[in-house]
UniProtKB/TrEMBL annotation:
Residues 1-23 form the signal peptide. Keywords: Amino-acid transport, Signal, Transport. It comes from Undibacterium arcticum. Belongs to the leucine-binding protein family. Coiled coil: none annotated. Residues 26-353 form the Leucine-binding protein domain. This is ABC transporter substrate-binding protein.
Length: 383
């Protein structure tokens, strides 16, 4: 029997198979650190994207088109992030890119996306200046400069802190920016700094710095660090017999902190838009779906990636896909800023970043921070 294409598509449509069989692929690049120390964040981020895309596709995709993730490992390294961005944009011809994991890599790779007029959407980049790189840069990660002041003030009040010691990584864009924000917040709150110490990426022994901090006798320790270094610092502090609480940033919000520091991390205060304790329906559904799929607890980074995929989907629903790549990329860029979303991380909107040096900027996250405290090996809301 001969059957016309028109007739075939009619049959498939009526059988409800059209989206699976006939729809176009919407190629979404995912450039995250899937190996190396930053994989602690990157793998959770990839899982969040996968969960959201699978759910969206199972419900018929985006206007009948399928979200097709092109996933690449940028290893948490600047050079690799640049390579992966070029591959995704010019070889795979993706519609847009999610990533990279670290702000440090975003400063290297995002200019490539902006030059090619491709949306680059960070779900974990919290340093100042990310979106100043150009009008194609978006993020739903909340800046350290929005979160750390709220977190620091809450910790000062909770523990009655008068003086702190500070430790930070001085060769990473995120940890350096976090230090600047902590410093200006501490100055504004008139909190004395007893001692400031630094370390470099990959350091594992912090005894020299921590011995000096111990001698300066602070009420608390402020730490602008990525998770692995933070966990080792906390652990070694306890080994030295110090009991002070820690105040940390976005980098702390990972189950990995507790895998290394265990309940030594108790009384660590950290701010984030996401909390496992937030009992909003969208968050409960996300947590249950994540556990069912990956047999592990989600973290902030998975939640932000999950929400980001929904944010992009909301924009894509407003776009007519023409098949002409430049046009479709531009249409997505135009549709994104108006998206509002209420997901695992709560209510979200974009906020236009200020132009810098006469250069048009992209969009930051407009979202409130929740202050958490570690108790018994997990973060709970600080009330
Ligand atoms: C940044 C961060 C890190 C904690 C990445 C996961 O926030 O580099 O901006």
């Amino acid at each position: 029997m001969k059957i016309s294409l028109k007739k075939l598509s009619f049959l498939l449509l009526s059988a409800g198979l059209a989206s699976a069989t006939l729809a176009a692929d919407l190629k979404i690049g995912v450039a995250e650190a899937l190996t190396g120390p930053a994989a602690k964040y990157g793998v959770a981020i990839k899982n969040g994207f996968t969960l959201a895309a699978d759910e969206i596709n199972a419900k018929g995709g985006v206007n009948g088109n399928k979200l097709a993730l092109v996933v690449d490992d940028e290893q948490g390294k600047k050079e690799e992030a640049i390579n992966v961005f070029k591959k995704l944009i010019f070889q795979d011809k993706v519609l847009m890119i999610f990533g990279p994991t670290l702000s440090n890599s975003a400063f290297a790779a995002d200019p490539i996306a902006n030059a090619a007029k491709v949306v680059v959407f960070g779900t974990s980049n919290t340093a100042d200046g990310i979106t100043a790189m150009g009008p194609y840069t978006f993020r739903n990660s909340v800046m350290e400069s929005d979160v750390l002041p709220v977190t620091t003030r809450a910790a000062i009040k909770h523990f009655g802190i008068k003086k702190v010691a500070v430790i930070y990584g001085n060769d990473d864009a995120f940890t350096k920016n976090g230090y600047d924000v902590f410093k200006s917040t501490l100055d504004a709150q008139k909190i004395a700094v007893t001692n400031t110490e630094t370390y470099a990426k990959g350091d594992v022994d912090f005894k020299a710095q921590l011995t000096k901090i111990k001698a300066s006798n602070p009420d608390a320790i402020v730490c602008s660090c990525l998770a692995e270094e933070a966990a080792n610092i906390i652990l070694q502090t306890r080994t030295l017999g110090m009991k002070q609480p820690f105040i940390g940033g976005n980098g702390f919000n990972s189950p990995k902190l507790f895998e290394i520091a265990k309940d030594g991390a108790d009384n660590t205060v950290m701010g984030s838009p996401w909390s496992a304790d937030n009992s909003a329906a969208a968050n409960k559904a996300f947590i249950a779906a994540y556990k069912a799929k990956f047999n592990a607890d989600p973290d902030q980074f998975a939640a932000q990636a999950y929400d980001a995929m929904h944010i992009v989907t909301a924009a894509l629903q407003k776009v007519t896909i023409t098949g002409t790549l430049d046009k479709d990329r531009q249409a997505l860029r135009e549709a994104l800023p108006a998206v509002k979303f209420d997901g695992a991380t709560g209510k979200f909107a974009f906020r236009r970043a200020a132009a810098k040096d006469g250069k048009e900027a992209g969009y930051d996250a407009q979202q409130d921070a929740i202050v958490n405290i570690a108790k018994g090996g997990k973060f709970v809301l600080l009330k």
